[in-house]
């Protein structure tokens, strides 16, 4: 992803609910709903957030009790780890009481409801869906189910969860400054990868335990080669025939392998990869800095009408709304 190793630091403190809502929708999910249920006079939103390629790290608090709800995340996995207070979460039929000893984990599917007290300030970690799934796929050298059947929470006091939490806190603190070692792209990329791989090791998943029906077959090297070149240059005008040549098989064989091991054709996967890239870049850009068309073109879209329709179908809003940062 272009610019994926360069951290982007954004922060906001406001007593305006609409401004806080727009900020969170721009950085996280367009369908996010935030409603104060406590004393509105105590609403005091503050967020200090860093975007680094496929991860978004932030420290967030609201000052008063709020209720948050959101539909399926679709494009990401998400972890909320309270620093103070307790958070009540409902997701996929499971209730989790998260506090400084336990984080709550969200998969890309299923509605989310949160009761977030004013006393709760937390670390929010958003990881793009493909990044975490590729990490487990590479570590295990096998196909993983998408979305990953992750546990609903994990321990922050003992084991890998404690180390992961410390890593996230240190990385966020380092990235807030302009002159820290982690602000250098090469180091930032390594720390970013550590956050993703550390999460894969911290959260509960069934891989390695071989429960029936959860572990898929090995993903063929032909598929991996095609995925690697698409992620290396997502804006390049690939055709199925060109990807098949890279993979060393015929076009029909590659299409069949993708449908079996990825769940979609190579061109559908590439379009989703590009759309996610455009969405991430528009989310962190200012309207005066870039235009929708130039970002779309950079990611390989040449027909703006078809691009706009595909973008709205995936994210629920036109690309211009994402760029403006308003719901």
Summarize the structure.
The chain has helices at 17-27, 129-140, 159-176, 185-202, 221-232, 240-247, 251-261, 266-283, 292-298, 304-315, 319-324; strands at residues 8-14, 33-36, 45-52, 55-61, 66-70, 76-84, 87-91, 94-98, 102-106, 112-116, 121-128, 153-155.
Task: Provide structural commentary.
The chain is an alpha+beta fold and 327 residues long. It has two domains: 8-202, Jelly Rolls (Sandwich), CATH 2.60.120.10; 221-324, Orthogonal Bundle (Arc Repressor Mutant, subunit A), CATH 1.10.10.60. Helices cover 41% and strands 22% of the residues. The protein contains eleven helices and twelve strands. The protein has a seven-stranded antiparallel beta sheet with strand order 1-3-4-11-6-9-12, sandwiched between helices. The chain has a five-stranded antiparallel beta sheet with strand order 2-5-10-7-8. Strand 7 (87-91) and strand 8 (94-98) form a beta hairpin. The longest helix has 18 residues, at 159-176. Mean pLDDT is 84; it is low at 208-217. Keywords: DNA-binding, Transcription, Transcription regulation. One of its GO terms (molecular function) is sequence-specific DNA binding.
């Amino acid at each position: 992803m272009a610019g994926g190793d360069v951290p982007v630091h954004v922060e906001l403190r406001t007593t305006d609910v609409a401004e806080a809502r727009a900020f969170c929708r721009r950085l996280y999910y367009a369908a996010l709903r935030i409603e104060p249920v406590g004393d509105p006079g105590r609403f005091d939103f503050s967020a200090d957030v860093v975007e680094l390629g496929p991860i978004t790290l932030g420290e967030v608090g609201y000052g008063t009790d709020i209720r948050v709800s959101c539909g399926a995340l679709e494009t990401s996995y998400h972890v909320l780890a309270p620093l103070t207070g307790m958070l009540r979460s409902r997701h996929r039929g499971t209730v989790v009481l998260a506090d400084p000893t336990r984080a709550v984990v969200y998969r890309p599917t299923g509605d989310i409801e949160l009761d977030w007290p004013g006393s709760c300030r937390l670390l929010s970690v958003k990881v793009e869906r493909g990044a975490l799934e590729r990490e487990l796929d590479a570590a295990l050298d096998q196909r993983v189910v998408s979305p990953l059947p992750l546990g609903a929470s994990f321990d922050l006091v003992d084991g890998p969860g404690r180390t992961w939490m410390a890593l996230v806190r240190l990385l966020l603190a380092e990235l807030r400054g302009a002159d820290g070692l982690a602000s250098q792209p090469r180091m930032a990329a390594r720390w970013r990868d550590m956050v993703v791989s550390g999460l894969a090791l911290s959260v509960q998943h069934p891989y390695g335990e071989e429960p029936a029906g959860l572990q898929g077959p090995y993903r063929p090297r032909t598929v991996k080669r095609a995925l690697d070149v698409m992620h290396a240059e997502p804006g390049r005008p690939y055709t199925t025939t060109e990807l098949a040549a890279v993979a060393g098989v015929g076009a029909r064989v590659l299409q069949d392998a993708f449908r079996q091991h990825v769940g979609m054709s190579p061109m559908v996967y590439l379009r989703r990869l590009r759309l996610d890239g455009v969405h991430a870049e528009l989310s962190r850009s200012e309207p005066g800095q870039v235009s929708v068309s130039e970002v779309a073109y950079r990611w390989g879209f040449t027909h703006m009408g078809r691009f706009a329709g595909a973008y709205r179908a995936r994210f629920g809003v036109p690309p211009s709304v994402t760029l403006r940062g308003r719901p």
